[in-house]
Design goal:
The complex is a heterodimer of chains A (331) and B (325). With 331 residues, chain A is mainly α. Chain A has one domain (47-317): ABC transporter involved in vitamin B12 uptake, BtuC (Orthogonal Bundle), CATH 1.10.3470. Chain A has 13 helices and 2 strands; from the N terminus they run H-H-H-H-H-H-E-E-H-H-H-H-H-H-H. The radius of gyration of chain A is 22 Å and the shape is globular. The N and C termini of chain A lie far apart (52 Å). The model of chain A is unreliable at 1-35 and 327-331 (pLDDT under 50). In chain B, strands 1-2 form a two-stranded antiparallel sheet. Chain B is globular, with a radius of gyration of 20 Å. Classes of the chains: A mainly alpha (331), B mainly alpha (325). Chains A and B meet through helix 6, helix 11 and helix 13 of A and helix 4, helix 5, helix 9, helix 11 and helix 15 of B.
């Protein structure tokens, strides 16, 4: 078959339209309504980018949690996704008690952080100096316990949180941005900046960094290293909770959402380079964009597979992550 | 009889009890429960090889069981292949899946495999659900024929039990040989210290990848048996919860052992059907256990890892060691 006359952009767009009938509300714009096809394609792309950066922010928060615990313990915390779940579920629980949204949100974050600390004290502390394999196993078991606890306390149903501010979507060029998306970006940015300040400007943060660089040395200069590990679990739990809270109005939440989010957050952390907070945020945003572009331009059912494929490809090709420098991981 | 002859006779007695069980248990439901215990045991010995000997964690073994189950279903129903061929294909495809997953994740130090398997499990659950033309989607895949070994159809409760436990027993025998010889020593060296094992000339990546592939293969065979025994598969069976169940069995069973994990698999499987097993126990107790099943598995993992990291097998060894001292 010869290539024939190239029917760019209409041909491809038409083909894509056939493949994606569920989007026909946006793609059946009549010709001659004053906007060219090109603008329309751009609008669509912009919409995908917005969705990607929205989800990516959440992944970034979860990835930060992985990174913080990894830095402190050298182990992967499989309960990280459950902290995300707890943030959303506790937020719903506190609003149902009649608390105003802001108070309920803060209470949920505080409660999840406390659960994170207790989790570390009860399950991880007793084996902290042992094999990382044991820490991983304990967090796997602990994740199951947390998930089942949420199931028994809050029931199996999906729960929704009210949007933080009511009102119609905002318009940016040709794309629509839900108000909650703006909240997601703002609160993620706030959390990241707060974390950076905490790490760089406070004695507590310096102590945490010292512990993650070298535990013995930190102990020698008077840092309570095991308290820092507890703090890192609390901090990771709080970040996960923020993610679970801000996304709950858009996606709803349920007791079982933790494991899937854990995989995505970890893929983001690996993509950026495990152990580096800035890279975790970058990895999260990139993963979100990859997912949303795959869902938009290839096939929406592949969306949840992107994270796993990205994880495997990164492990295979560039285990130190995109921003991890050139040092190869050695035995 | 002294302790030594007793120890030598013990395996024979256990084999005889397992083999002769259907002659004494006539209740078909109970026999089915024991058959499922055998299927779980087959998955768990593979997992025990990976976890207890090579020190790696898989949170995706249910996905390999699922691959095996669906492969057997598609081969025997859609392609109308003989059962044995479908059974072999199930193992082969699961092993291939294991290879694809293990190669990238195991080249690295650390426990990336655990997370990769978790993601793989989620991905496969999604695939079983979404690939409707092949797998039947959420409605499941029915009408899978009973196993047939050549002209002999295995269709009674007792013969299914024997088939399942024969496969489990043969696999156990093969793995006993693997673990007591050179590859087993390599695995345990690896678990102890990777640099140490490497310094002794152990091809650490090769050993880890091979172990994982064998483990996935056994899970695939177990899946094929499951599909043929039940006659119906659906995506809701092969979830993370099932993977956690298998892991809890392997962890409880203990490290550096195969008998321990088999015992744990049988124990935890029977736990849910306590009322059918022991006459005095009321139905409600069994129902409560079923409601809190996953809690039990999660708590089991946590407690065993904290307080008895080498599991039942470790406790057994310590008891024996204590006696000797």
């Amino acid at each position: 078959m010869t290539p024939g006359p190239v029917d760019w952009p209409g041909g491809r767009a038409a083909l894509r339209r056939r493949r994606r009938p569920w989007r026909n509300d946006q793609t059946t714009r009549r010709p001659g309504d004053g906007r060219g096809r090109g603008t329309h394609e751009l609008d669509e792309l912009l919409q995908f980018l917005i969705a990607g950066l929205k989800n990516g922010s959440i992944y970034a928060l979860v990835a930060l949690g992985f990174t913080i615990v990894f830095a402190a313990t050298g182990a992967i915390n499989f309960a990280q996704g459950e902290f995300f779940m707890l943030g959303g579920m506790l937020g719903v629980f506190f609003t149902e008690l009649g608390l105003p949204l802001a108070v309920a949100a803060l209470a949920a974050i505080a409660a999840t952080a406390a659960i994170g600390a207790v989790f570390e004290l009860l399950a991880v502390r007793p084996i902290a100096d042992g094999d990382p394999l044991r820490i991983i196993m304990v967090t796997i078991g602990g994740a199951v316990v947390l998930r089942q606890l949420a199931l028994h306390l809050f029931g199996p149903d999906e729960r929704a949180l009210a949007a933080f501010t009511q009102g119609s979507s905002l318009k940016l060029l040709g794309a629509a941005i839900e108000r909650q998306t703006v909240w997601i970006w703002a609160l993620t940015a706030l959390a990241v900046v707060a974390l950076a300040l905490l790490y760089r400007r406070t004695t507590f943060g310096r102590a945490m960094r010292a512990t993650s660089i070298r535990r013995d040395a930190a102990r020698l200069v008077g840092v309570n290293a095991s308290a820092m590990v507890t703090a890192s679990f609390a901090l990771a739990a709080a970040l996960g909770a923020v993610g679970g809270l801000v996304v709950a109005p858009l996606t709803q939440t349920a007791f079982g959402v933790g494991a899937g989010m854990g995989v995505k957050g970890f893929a983001a952390a690996i993509l950026g380079g495990l152990g580096n907070p800035v890279a975790a945020v970058g990895g999260g945003l990139i993963l979100g964009l990859l997912e949303s572009l795959t869902a938009g331009y290839v096939n929406p059912s592949y969306k949840d597979g992107v994270a796993v494929v990205v994880m495997l490809v990164v492990l295979f090709v560039r285990p130190q992550g995109l921003f991890g420098g050139s040092g190869r991981v050695k035995v | 009889m002294n302790a030594r002859t007793l120890r030598a006779l013990a395996p024979l007695v256990i084999v005889a009890v397992v083999a002769l069980l259907p002659l004494f248990v006539t209740d078909r439901f109970l026999l089915k429960v024991f058959t499922f215990a055998g299927i779980n045991a087959l998955v768990v010995i593979g997992l025990a090889l990976l976890f207890g000997h090579a020190g790696q964690v898989s949170l995706g073994h249910a996905a390999f069981v699922g691959i095996g189950a669906y492969t057997c279903a598609v081969c025997t129903v859609t392609f109308e292949w003989p059962w044995l061929l479908g059974f072999a294909a199930a193992g082969a495809l699961a092993a291939l899946g294991g290879l694809v997953l293990a190669l990238p994740s195991l080249r690295l130090k650390g426990h990336y495999l655990a997370m990769a398997t978790l993601g793989f499990g989620e991905l496969m659950t999604l695939a079983f659900r979404e690939a409707e033309p092949v797998t039947g989607g959420v409605d499941g895949f029915g009408g899978i024929p009973f196993p047939a070994l050549g002209p002999f159809e295995v269709d009674t409760a007792a013969s299914l039990y024997w088939l399942v436990w024969a496969v489990a027993g043969l696999s156990l025998l093969a793995l006993f040989n693997v673990t007591s010889l050179r590859p087993g020593r390599a695995m345990r060296a690896l678990h102890g210290s990777e640099p140490g094992a490497q310094a002794c000339g152990v091809d650490i990546v090769g050993v880890k990848v091979r172990t994982f592939v064998v483990s996935a293969l056994l899970a695939g065979l177990a899946g094929a048996l499951y599909a043929s025994v039940v006659g119906f598969v659906s995506p809701s069976v092969f979830t993370l919860a099932a993977s956690v169940t298998f892991l809890a069995m392997a962890v409880l069973g203990g490290t550096r052992s195969l008998a321990g994990p088999i015992a744990a698999a049988v124990l935890l499987t029977l736990l849910q059907y306590l009322d059918a097993l022991i006459p005095g126990i009321p139905r409600e107790t069994a129902q409560t256990i079923q409601t809190y099943q996953e809690d039990i598995y999660g708590i089991t993992i946590v407690l065993v890892v904290i307080f008895a990291p080498s599991g039942l097998a470790g406790l057994w060894r310590r008891r024996k060691g204590g006696e000797a001292a």
